[in-house]
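Sample log: YtzH-like family protein.
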Amino acid sequence: MPISQQDQLNLLKDILSNHQTDCCGSVSECEQLERLVKSLMVHPSLDQNAKAVLEEIYDYSQHGKNSTQLDNHIELHQQELSQWVNNINQFS
């Protein structure tokens, strides 16, 4: 059974928040972020601001899963992680 758009946004926020707080993560979390973003991008009600944020998160997760230093990648994006969570709160 598919999860609702709101549940997907909550899961997205949870993973991003964990990356920000813990300054570490896993390849599987990056892959989960990609799946969530792809699923959310197909919603016709999604506005352009939300799409732009989701594209940034997708790029972050792609670079993260391919990084040999994932924890460093996460540390370098601390400010963006915080901003993305704030943005998701505004359009969720």
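Observation: Helices lie at 5-22, 27-41, 48-65, 70-76, 78-91.
Observation: The chain has one domain: 5-91.
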